[in-house]
TrEMBL record, chain A:
Xref: PANTHER family: INNER MEMBRANE PROTEIN YEDE (PTHR30574), SULPHUR TRANSPORT DOMAIN-CONTAINING PROTEIN (PTHR30574:SF1)
Membrane topology: Multi-pass membrane protein
InterPro entries listed in its UniProt record: Sulf_transp_TsuA/YedE
Chief place where the protein resides: membrane
Keyword match Ion transport: no
Protein name: YeeE/YedE family protein
GO CC terms of this entry: plasma membrane
Keywords: Cell inner membrane, Cell membrane, Membrane, Transmembrane, Transmembrane helix, Transport
Taxonomic classification: Bacteria, Pseudomonadati, Bacteroidota, Flavobacteriia, Flavobacteriales
Localization (cell): Cell inner membrane
Automatic annotation (TrEMBL), chain B:
Transmembrane parts of this sequence: 38-57, 78-98, 110-131
The protein's name: YeeE/YedE family protein
The species this protein was found in: Marixanthomonas ophiurae
Keyword terms of this UniProt record: Membrane, Transmembrane, Transmembrane helix
Keyword Transmembrane: yes
Origin: domain of life: Bacteria
Length: 185, 137
Protein backbone atom coordinates (compact mmCIF):
# COMPACT_ATOMS: atom_id res chain seq x y z
CA UNK A 1 0.00 0.00 0.00
CA UNK A 2 1.26 3.41 -0.93
CA UNK A 3 0.10 5.87 1.71
CA UNK A 4 1.03 8.90 -0.34
CA UNK A 5 -0.68 7.81 -3.54
CA UNK A 6 -3.73 5.89 -2.31
CA UNK A 7 -6.78 7.78 -0.99
CA UNK A 8 -6.51 8.33 2.76
CA UNK A 9 -9.04 6.35 4.79
CA UNK A 10 -11.32 8.11 7.26
CA UNK A 11 -9.30 7.02 10.28
CA UNK A 12 -6.28 8.86 8.89
CA UNK A 13 -8.14 11.93 7.65
CA UNK A 14 -10.37 12.52 10.70
CA UNK A 15 -7.52 12.66 13.24
CA UNK A 16 -5.52 14.94 10.89
CA UNK A 17 -8.48 17.34 10.74
CA UNK A 18 -8.62 17.33 14.56
CA UNK A 19 -4.88 18.08 14.50
CA UNK A 20 -5.49 21.08 12.20
CA UNK A 21 -8.10 22.40 14.63
CA UNK A 22 -5.65 22.08 17.54
CA UNK A 23 -2.82 23.71 15.58
CA UNK A 24 -5.05 26.72 14.91
CA UNK A 25 -6.19 26.86 18.54
CA UNK A 26 -2.58 26.88 19.74
CA UNK A 27 -1.84 29.58 17.18
CA UNK A 28 -4.55 31.61 18.95
CA UNK A 29 -7.23 31.20 16.25
CA UNK A 30 -10.35 29.14 15.63
CA UNK A 31 -10.84 26.57 12.89
CA UNK A 32 -13.66 27.66 10.57
CA UNK A 33 -13.50 27.95 6.81
CA UNK A 34 -16.46 30.21 6.04
CA UNK A 35 -15.52 33.40 7.91
CA UNK A 36 -12.93 34.09 5.20
CA UNK A 37 -15.86 34.77 2.82
CA UNK A 38 -16.91 37.64 5.09
CA UNK A 39 -13.31 38.86 5.19
CA UNK A 40 -13.13 38.79 1.36
CA UNK A 41 -16.40 40.76 1.13
CA UNK A 42 -14.96 43.33 3.54
CA UNK A 43 -11.71 43.57 1.56
CA UNK A 44 -13.81 44.09 -1.58
CA UNK A 45 -15.51 47.12 0.00
CA UNK A 46 -18.81 45.54 1.15
CA UNK A 47 -18.60 47.73 4.27
CA UNK A 48 -20.13 50.49 2.14
CA UNK A 49 -23.33 48.43 1.77
CA UNK A 50 -23.69 46.83 5.22
CA UNK A 51 -22.27 47.35 8.71
CA UNK A 52 -21.73 43.60 8.92
CA UNK A 53 -18.66 44.09 6.75
CA UNK A 54 -17.33 47.08 8.69
CA UNK A 55 -14.62 45.50 10.79
CA UNK A 56 -10.87 45.53 10.92
CA UNK A 57 -10.31 42.88 8.25
CA UNK A 58 -6.56 43.32 8.47
CA UNK A 59 -6.75 41.38 11.74
CA UNK A 60 -8.41 38.55 9.82
CA UNK A 61 -5.76 38.32 7.12
CA UNK A 62 -4.58 35.07 8.66
CA UNK A 63 -7.67 33.27 7.38
CA UNK A 64 -6.90 34.43 3.84
CA UNK A 65 -3.47 32.84 4.24
CA UNK A 66 -5.14 29.58 5.27
CA UNK A 67 -7.26 29.86 2.11
CA UNK A 68 -4.19 30.43 -0.05
CA UNK A 69 -2.60 27.43 1.63
CA UNK A 70 -5.67 25.30 0.88
CA UNK A 71 -5.36 26.22 -2.82
CA UNK A 72 -1.68 25.25 -2.82
CA UNK A 73 -2.47 22.04 -0.91
CA UNK A 74 -5.10 21.14 -3.50
CA UNK A 75 -2.54 21.72 -6.25
CA UNK A 76 0.14 19.58 -4.58
CA UNK A 77 -2.25 16.73 -3.76
CA UNK A 78 -3.86 16.58 -7.20
CA UNK A 79 -0.60 16.93 -9.13
CA UNK A 80 1.75 14.73 -7.16
CA UNK A 81 -0.20 12.58 -4.72
CA UNK A 82 -3.28 11.25 -6.47
CA UNK A 83 -4.62 9.46 -9.52
CA UNK A 84 -7.60 11.84 -9.25
CA UNK A 85 -10.34 9.26 -9.28
CA UNK A 86 -12.83 8.64 -6.49
CA UNK A 87 -14.36 5.22 -5.98
CA UNK A 88 -17.72 5.35 -4.29
CA UNK A 89 -20.28 2.72 -3.36
CA UNK A 90 -21.06 0.87 -6.65
CA UNK A 91 -24.81 1.02 -5.99
CA UNK A 92 -24.68 4.80 -5.58
CA UNK A 93 -22.52 5.08 -8.71
CA UNK A 94 -25.02 3.01 -10.68
CA UNK A 95 -27.96 5.03 -9.37
CA UNK A 96 -26.19 8.28 -10.34
CA UNK A 97 -25.67 6.96 -13.83
CA UNK A 98 -29.22 5.65 -14.31
CA UNK A 99 -31.12 8.53 -12.69
CA UNK A 100 -29.01 11.53 -13.64
CA UNK A 101 -26.68 10.36 -16.41
CA UNK A 102 -23.66 11.11 -14.23
CA UNK A 103 -21.44 8.24 -15.33
CA UNK A 104 -18.03 9.42 -14.17
CA UNK A 105 -18.00 7.96 -10.64
CA UNK A 106 -14.85 5.82 -10.20
CA UNK A 107 -13.26 7.61 -13.18
CA UNK A 108 -12.93 11.19 -11.99
CA UNK A 109 -12.53 13.25 -8.81
CA UNK A 110 -15.43 15.54 -9.73
CA UNK A 111 -18.23 14.81 -12.22
CA UNK A 112 -17.33 16.47 -15.55
CA UNK A 113 -21.09 16.64 -16.21
CA UNK A 114 -21.12 19.50 -13.68
CA UNK A 115 -17.51 20.61 -13.31
CA UNK A 116 -15.85 20.36 -16.72
CA UNK A 117 -14.92 23.89 -17.75
CA UNK A 118 -16.71 23.66 -21.11
CA UNK A 119 -19.95 22.90 -19.22
CA UNK A 120 -19.93 26.53 -18.07
CA UNK A 121 -21.49 27.47 -21.39
CA UNK A 122 -24.52 25.45 -20.32
CA UNK A 123 -26.83 27.93 -18.50
CA UNK A 124 -28.37 25.14 -16.40
CA UNK A 125 -25.00 23.99 -15.04
CA UNK A 126 -23.95 27.59 -14.45
CA UNK A 127 -27.13 28.20 -12.45
CA UNK A 128 -26.70 25.02 -10.37
CA UNK A 129 -23.14 26.03 -9.41
CA UNK A 130 -24.09 29.64 -8.71
CA UNK A 131 -27.18 28.83 -6.63
CA UNK A 132 -25.32 26.07 -4.78
CA UNK A 133 -22.60 28.53 -3.84
CA UNK A 134 -25.11 31.23 -2.94
CA UNK A 135 -26.94 28.92 -0.51
CA UNK A 136 -23.64 27.81 1.02
CA UNK A 137 -22.45 31.39 1.55
CA UNK A 138 -25.76 32.72 2.84
CA UNK A 139 -26.47 29.70 5.03
CA UNK A 140 -22.99 29.55 6.52
CA UNK A 141 -23.08 33.19 7.59
CA UNK A 142 -26.68 33.00 8.83
CA UNK A 143 -25.83 29.89 10.88
CA UNK A 144 -22.56 31.48 12.01
CA UNK A 145 -20.36 28.72 10.62
CA UNK A 146 -20.01 25.79 8.24
CA UNK A 147 -18.90 22.19 8.49
CA UNK A 148 -15.54 23.11 10.02
CA UNK A 149 -16.80 25.88 12.29
CA UNK A 150 -19.81 24.00 13.67
CA UNK A 151 -19.43 20.27 12.90
CA UNK A 152 -15.78 20.18 14.01
CA UNK A 153 -14.94 23.24 16.16
CA UNK A 154 -18.36 23.87 17.72
CA UNK A 155 -19.31 20.27 18.42
CA UNK A 156 -15.84 19.54 19.80
CA UNK A 157 -16.52 22.29 22.33
CA UNK A 158 -19.94 20.72 23.04
CA UNK A 159 -21.90 23.73 21.79
CA UNK A 160 -25.65 23.14 21.54
CA UNK A 161 -26.04 25.82 18.81
CA UNK A 162 -23.55 23.87 16.70
CA UNK A 163 -25.58 20.71 17.15
CA UNK A 164 -28.70 22.55 15.93
CA UNK A 165 -26.72 23.89 12.95
CA UNK A 166 -25.26 20.47 12.05
CA UNK A 167 -28.69 18.83 12.23
CA UNK A 168 -29.83 21.65 9.92
CA UNK A 169 -26.93 20.92 7.51
CA UNK A 170 -28.08 17.31 7.22
CA UNK A 171 -31.77 18.15 6.91
CA UNK A 172 -30.92 20.56 4.08
CA UNK A 173 -28.59 18.07 2.40
CA UNK A 174 -31.04 15.19 2.61
CA UNK A 175 -33.90 17.33 1.29
CA UNK A 176 -31.72 18.46 -1.61
CA UNK A 177 -30.53 14.97 -2.59
CA UNK A 178 -33.76 13.04 -2.01
CA UNK A 179 -36.53 15.54 -2.74
CA UNK A 180 -35.06 18.27 -4.95
CA UNK A 181 -32.46 16.45 -7.09
CA UNK A 182 -35.14 14.42 -8.91
CA UNK A 183 -36.89 17.70 -9.74
CA UNK A 184 -33.75 19.61 -10.71
CA UNK A 185 -31.83 17.03 -12.75
CA UNK B 1 6.96 33.96 10.65
CA UNK B 2 3.34 33.69 11.81
CA UNK B 3 2.24 34.14 8.19
CA UNK B 4 4.21 31.05 7.20
CA UNK B 5 2.49 29.08 9.97
CA UNK B 6 -0.99 29.94 8.69
CA UNK B 7 0.04 29.24 5.10
CA UNK B 8 1.49 25.85 6.12
CA UNK B 9 -1.62 24.90 8.09
CA UNK B 10 -3.65 25.80 4.99
CA UNK B 11 -1.46 23.64 2.73
CA UNK B 12 -1.75 20.74 5.15
CA UNK B 13 -5.53 21.22 5.30
CA UNK B 14 -5.75 21.29 1.50
CA UNK B 15 -3.80 18.05 1.15
CA UNK B 16 -5.90 16.32 3.81
CA UNK B 17 -9.17 17.46 2.20
CA UNK B 18 -8.09 16.31 -1.25
CA UNK B 19 -6.49 13.02 -0.20
CA UNK B 20 -9.41 12.06 2.05
CA UNK B 21 -11.74 12.78 -0.90
CA UNK B 22 -13.83 15.05 1.36
CA UNK B 23 -13.46 17.62 -1.43
CA UNK B 24 -15.09 15.31 -3.98
CA UNK B 25 -18.66 15.94 -5.11
CA UNK B 26 -19.12 12.16 -5.30
CA UNK B 27 -18.31 11.65 -1.62
CA UNK B 28 -20.80 14.32 -0.54
CA UNK B 29 -23.51 12.79 -2.71
CA UNK B 30 -22.69 9.32 -1.39
CA UNK B 31 -22.83 10.59 2.19
CA UNK B 32 -26.36 11.94 1.77
CA UNK B 33 -27.33 8.63 0.16
CA UNK B 34 -25.90 6.81 3.21
CA UNK B 35 -23.84 4.84 0.72
CA UNK B 36 -20.63 4.71 2.75
CA UNK B 37 -19.26 5.25 6.24
CA UNK B 38 -16.34 7.27 4.82
CA UNK B 39 -17.55 10.86 5.42
CA UNK B 40 -19.21 9.95 8.72
CA UNK B 41 -15.97 8.33 9.80
CA UNK B 42 -13.95 11.44 8.94
CA UNK B 43 -16.29 13.81 10.78
CA UNK B 44 -16.87 11.35 13.64
CA UNK B 45 -13.21 10.58 14.33
CA UNK B 46 -12.21 14.26 14.05
CA UNK B 47 -14.99 15.06 16.49
CA UNK B 48 -14.15 12.30 18.98
CA UNK B 49 -10.53 13.45 19.17
CA UNK B 50 -11.65 17.08 19.14
CA UNK B 51 -13.91 16.61 22.17
CA UNK B 52 -11.21 14.79 24.13
CA UNK B 53 -8.54 17.36 23.23
CA UNK B 54 -10.68 20.35 24.10
CA UNK B 55 -11.63 18.84 27.48
CA UNK B 56 -7.91 18.44 28.19
CA UNK B 57 -7.16 22.00 27.04
CA UNK B 58 -9.86 23.32 29.40
CA UNK B 59 -8.88 21.12 32.38
CA UNK B 60 -5.17 21.89 32.12
CA UNK B 61 -5.86 25.51 31.16
CA UNK B 62 -3.42 25.37 28.25
CA UNK B 63 -2.39 28.65 26.61
CA UNK B 64 -1.84 29.46 22.98
CA UNK B 65 1.53 30.73 21.73
CA UNK B 66 2.59 34.04 23.27
CA UNK B 67 0.66 33.06 26.43
CA UNK B 68 -2.64 34.23 24.92
CA UNK B 69 -5.99 32.67 25.73
CA UNK B 70 -7.10 29.71 23.60
CA UNK B 71 -10.07 30.86 21.50
CA UNK B 72 -13.03 28.80 22.64
CA UNK B 73 -15.73 31.45 22.42
CA UNK B 74 -19.17 30.03 23.30
CA UNK B 75 -21.70 30.35 20.45
CA UNK B 76 -24.60 32.75 21.00
CA UNK B 77 -27.73 31.03 22.21
CA UNK B 78 -30.48 30.94 19.61
CA UNK B 79 -32.51 28.42 17.68
CA UNK B 80 -33.82 30.17 14.57
CA UNK B 81 -30.53 31.27 13.05
CA UNK B 82 -28.84 27.88 13.48
CA UNK B 83 -31.84 25.88 12.26
CA UNK B 84 -32.75 28.06 9.26
CA UNK B 85 -29.19 28.99 8.37
CA UNK B 86 -28.12 25.39 8.80
CA UNK B 87 -30.81 24.05 6.48
CA UNK B 88 -29.99 26.66 3.82
CA UNK B 89 -26.31 25.72 4.07
CA UNK B 90 -27.17 22.03 3.76
CA UNK B 91 -29.20 22.63 0.61
CA UNK B 92 -26.23 24.36 -0.99
CA UNK B 93 -23.69 21.85 0.34
CA UNK B 94 -25.53 19.02 -1.41
CA UNK B 95 -26.32 20.98 -4.59
CA UNK B 96 -22.79 22.22 -5.22
CA UNK B 97 -21.23 19.19 -3.52
CA UNK B 98 -18.76 21.47 -1.80
CA UNK B 99 -18.47 23.33 1.47
CA UNK B 100 -16.30 26.39 2.14
CA UNK B 101 -13.01 24.54 2.80
CA UNK B 102 -12.94 22.15 -0.15
CA UNK B 103 -13.97 24.96 -2.54
CA UNK B 104 -10.50 26.46 -2.30
CA UNK B 105 -8.82 23.08 -2.48
CA UNK B 106 -10.61 22.44 -5.78
CA UNK B 107 -9.33 25.72 -7.22
CA UNK B 108 -5.82 24.40 -6.67
CA UNK B 109 -6.76 21.07 -8.23
CA UNK B 110 -7.63 22.92 -11.42
CA UNK B 111 -11.44 22.76 -11.36
CA UNK B 112 -12.05 26.27 -12.61
CA UNK B 113 -15.85 25.85 -12.48
CA UNK B 114 -15.58 25.92 -8.70
CA UNK B 115 -14.85 29.65 -9.06
CA UNK B 116 -18.53 30.06 -9.93
CA UNK B 117 -19.44 28.32 -6.66
CA UNK B 118 -17.02 30.58 -4.75
CA UNK B 119 -18.48 33.65 -6.46
CA UNK B 120 -21.96 32.42 -5.44
CA UNK B 121 -20.75 31.92 -1.87
CA UNK B 122 -19.35 35.46 -1.75
CA UNK B 123 -22.63 36.77 -3.14
CA UNK B 124 -24.56 34.77 -0.53
CA UNK B 125 -22.35 36.12 2.25
CA UNK B 126 -22.85 39.65 0.95
CA UNK B 127 -26.61 39.14 0.74
CA UNK B 128 -26.67 37.91 4.34
CA UNK B 129 -24.77 41.00 5.45
CA UNK B 130 -27.29 43.26 3.75
CA UNK B 131 -30.37 41.39 5.00
CA UNK B 132 -29.03 40.51 8.46
CA UNK B 133 -31.23 42.89 10.45
CA UNK B 134 -34.40 41.71 8.72
CA UNK B 135 -33.80 38.01 9.47
CA UNK B 136 -34.86 36.15 12.63
CA UNK B 137 -31.83 35.40 14.83
Amino acid sequence: MNLIYEPWPWYVAGPLIALIMFLLLFAGKQFGMSSNLRTMCAVGGAGKAADFFKFDWKKERWNLLVVLGAVIGGFIASQFMSNNTVEINPNVAEQLSIDYGITSANEAYMPPELFATDQLSNPFVLLVLLVGGLLVGFGARYAGGCTSGHAISGLSNLQLPSLIAVIGFFIGGLVMIHALFPLIF
Amino acid sequence: MKQTVYLSIGIFFGIVMYKSEAASWFRIYEMFQFGSFHMYGIIGSALALGIIGIQIIKKKNFKAVGNQQIQLTPKNKSFARYAIGGIIFGLGWALAGACPGPMYVLVGSGYLSILVVIFGALLGTFLYGVLKDKLPH
